[in-house]
Write a structure and sequence with these properties.
The strands form four sheets. This protein has a five-stranded mixed β-sheet. Helices cover about 20% and strands about 30% of the residues. It has helices at about 1-15, 70-80, 125-130, 170-175, 220-225, and strands spanning about 30-35, 45-50, 55, 60-65, 90-95, 100-105, 115, 140-145, 165-170, 190-195, 195-205, 210-215, 240-245, 245-250, 265. It has three domains: about 1-20 and about 100-195, Outer membrane lipoprotein wza fold like; about 30-95, wza like domain (wza like fold); about 195-265, Roll (Outer membrane lipoprotein wza fold like). The protein has about 270 residues and is of the alpha+beta class. The chain is built from five helices and 15 strands.
Amino acid sequence: MIRFALSLVLVSGLTAGADAQVTNYVVGPQDVLAITVFDQQDLGGKYAVEADGTFTFPLIGRVRAGGLTLREVEASLRKELADGFFKDPQLSVAVEQYRSQRIFVVGEVRNPGTYALTGDMTLIEALARAGSTNEAASGEALIVRPHAGAHPEGPVLPDQEDGSDVIRVDIKELQSGRLSQNAQLQDNDTVFVPRAELVYVFGQVKSPGAFPLQKGTTVLQALSLAGGVTDRGATGRIRIARVVRGHKVEIKGRLEDVVRPGDTIIVPERFF
């Protein structure tokens, strides 16, 4: 159910942001631009941006595109073509192939890897491209952002002390439709979905074992992960084994208590 809810949010987020993706995209080397000049079809075509951030366009020659948004490239071409060539030229510039910018998506996702940073890409779209989170994922995603000027060769994890900034996003809030959590990504960002910590449930439950623990999980919710209490279970005498400051203690558990990572919930058998 959680994965289904997240999928709905991902799809809605992609739909809502589809038109805005290219608005502020900054062109870089190796990007391939698709340029259309209306009423002058012979000038249109696909143009690869070279290492110096420029490309060659008919009639004009070298055109700077690196570091400019698509709208700025359009304005530059329009100005050059209007200077002695055409009256009020109309044209459009789009990205045919994104090659200059990238992000990394790692951790508990179905398809971790390196992805092209396209347009105003957000966390939702990045997770969607990586196939969404898997069953072992925790309830948050970390965006690790290198400082300006840094160009890592691969993903940067939160525990690597390289001066990167870390943005924490609550995936549950994304699931609930709070798109304010839907952070916009930048070149060389690493999206890291950590593995959920575990809670252990044993005794008179239908499916004892270890289960991923989400923030705020109660004893009752943990029992439901284990299939619920059997007919012989005593919910009034639940015990929680917990490590406190390096020492194992055992406390009485109530159904509404919030479980901690590493807790072991034990449901004893009824006396009669």
